[in-house]
Amino acid sequence: MTPPAALLDVDGLSVRFALDGGWVDAVRGVGFQLGRERLAIVGESGSGKSVTVRALLGLLPRTARVSAARMRFQGQDLVSMSPRGLRAIRGRQIAMVVQDPRQGLDPVRTIGAQIAEMLILHARLGRRAARARATDLLAEVHVRDPARVAGLYPHQVSGGMGQRAMIAMMLAGSPRVLIADEATSALDAVVQHRILDLIDEQVDRRGMGAILISHDLDLVRRHADRVLVMYAGRILEEIVVTGGPLDARHPYTMGLLACRPILSGNGADLPTLKRDPAWAA
Amino acid sequence: MGRVSPVPALALADFWVHHGSVATVRGVSLTVPEAGSLGIVGESGCGKSSLLKAVAGITHGWSGGLRVFGRDLGKRRSRADRRLLQIVFQDPMAALNPAHTVDDALCEPLAIHGLPDRERRVRIALDQVALPRSVRFRFPHQLSGGQRQRVCIARALLIEPRVLLLDEPTSALDVSVQAEVLNLLSMLRRELGLTCVMVSHDLSVVTHMCETIGVMETGRVAEILPRADLVAGRIATTYGRALFADSVLNGAREPARRADGSPRAKPVSPEISENVSEFHDGST
Amino acid sequence: MRALTRSWLLTSEPESALQARVGLLYRRLRRVRGNPICMAGLIMVGSLVLLTIILPLLPLADPVSQALEHRLQAPSFTHPFGTDTLGRDVLARTLYGARPTLVIVAFVLLAAVPVGVLIGAAAGLLGGVTDRVLMRLSDLFMAFPRLVLAIAVAAVLGQGMVTAMLAIAVTGWPPYARITRAEAATWRRAEFVQAAEALGASKARLLLRHVLPLCLPSALVRAALDAPGIVLISAGLGFLGLGVPPPTPEWGASVADGRVVMFDAWWITTFPGLFILLLGLGFNLLGDGLRDLADPRS
Predict the structure, then answer these.
(1) Are the beta carbons of C195 and B101 separated by less than 8 Å?
(2) Inter-chain residue contact B179 with A272, CB threshold 8 Å
(3) Which of C272, C235, C294, C209 lies closest to C105, judged by CA?
(4) What is the SS3 assignment for B25?
């Protein structure tokens, strides 16, 4: 099987934030490649996973300093790209879905109008064509009665529906890469998997690459091809997903896997993670 | 033979909760025995959080019977009522006043209920939830998520309630921190003989902590199962079965993709209608 | 007694409530120092206030004594701002003229802000009928044009600083009530307020311990942004002859005095006018800077 062409190529990415008279290293020397596959970045809060992808897209606040040996999207260099260039890539070639759809959706405009706007902007469609295509996109993301939902406002739909609308919006520009940053953390358990199944389907159908950011190892095991485990700004290990239990080697990952409650457990105290300071070195 | 059954810790009879004109909880009746633990699961919008908040006396649009250890509780709660049951919220950052230190937060219940000996009680509370003394005068934004939730738990336990309501207490926490908090809750339950009612969307958490699990659907309790039945999959409700199927898939051994790279068909999980949410009970 | 060292203030493990609070205050003050707009405003207002306090110690001419033989003299070495129609030193009159204005600003804010904030917080927290009644009350007072009301009050109570303060304060509190009410209504739904309620906190406690302290930053910002308006109204009253009675120096009155000779003796109107501008601008910058900084979570 030919190796996947690299959509993203990152090496030596470091991000530090200026804070209260000092520096905080949020990301330290992270490197990875993304092809037409689903890559998961897993870590706890503060591990730097969100900061990593935001650094790629230039979405960090001014207090952040980004440096990288290499940061390329389809061969284009992202480190030296102008803000204008980054804006052109964001949303169109690399799209991101965030945790709370209500933050990404404008509360005073209907869902259909917002998707149509993305189509006009990124796919250069006319207004009428965009409206029609918006309804099509909603159908593609398995929204039942898409015409009706297109006329609704974000506060009128459930979290899962809102997330589907967000995904539809993000797909409007036919991006090459879709990033889901804890996109399902606010949804309840069953809906989470449905949304991720949807992302899987779209990735397959459109030949995109996807980066799934999550803190949930069980979730990514079912929806990713490779998993990068991050801790304190570094990547501790990379696991290729086989479908069985995750083949974790690093004690941190093994510790995380061990401390989850499982259905067949007996209610005894859960093992807790003993953090080794060496992991953060 | 002729033994009087012990008074249930919590008894709801035909409990309804309204948000404006919409009924989020419709005629729920259930009992929880003393030192028992009830878990409530259900999809977003099913009313589980509404139920908990109404029972905790935070929202007032409810009707029906509510008894804690035989004592009727109404919408207006006296201090003595408040000492019977307390609640721990989902997001510890939101549940703590950002301008109050941990010490302020812990002294508050003591001040409200006029309990003496504050210094000693605060120290004991911190020890009880395994928080070091050094965090006592920090502000919430200077604490980690797990530490904040411990403060919230300590605060709820300071006035020694007999029933503890928990609204998704670990869903905002990392999995390693969740394990610690769940262990803490188990220990406190054992030591203090607490009765717990826990709402969660995570079936494994609920089965770990609770002996009985209730599944809610559109405002009603669709079924109540003992843990053993749930673990074995003897579930009647659609949502319950879907949750169970997902939990089992989490332990699945089948690869998601076939050898040639094409995706394997997903196991058919029962249809869950993702309705446009008709009511907002505060959950997403 | 531990020294007030930087490390003590910035420690992440405070050992007492006092240390925690002082540390937080220090952190906030450091952020103020880092904001150039705020600092500029602070310096402008601060230096004027300081100047007003140390005035008696400065080698200034007497602002009240007349010297008709020296009237309408252009700015010179002996009179840096020139002299006015009655031969009085304009520099001295301008600097002394800051006093009535600053006193009025201080008193109006000290009267209007607490009243407005308290009313607004109560309205926002309690909701229902209380909210409606209090907000209609604030509508009532807000409907009066400030300057017109001030004139009316002055006409009834006579001229003087007390009149001015009263008139301006009476119409000054509604904006604070409104913004505090909006904030209180939001904070009311916060989970920590619900938690306090679940613990059995009374409404009074919720108001005073939780909601009010969190509404204060916005009120303070608003106060700083309100001050220029108060400066202008007070000057306006003085201009109309309704402020402090002569011969006490006052900016508005000085501007009025210089009106008739404005094109020949520009310095009489211009310098007091310039100071009105400077004080107003200073407060504006201070308010802008504070608005950038106001956030209890930072």
Answers:
(1) no
(2) yes
(3) C235
(4) strand
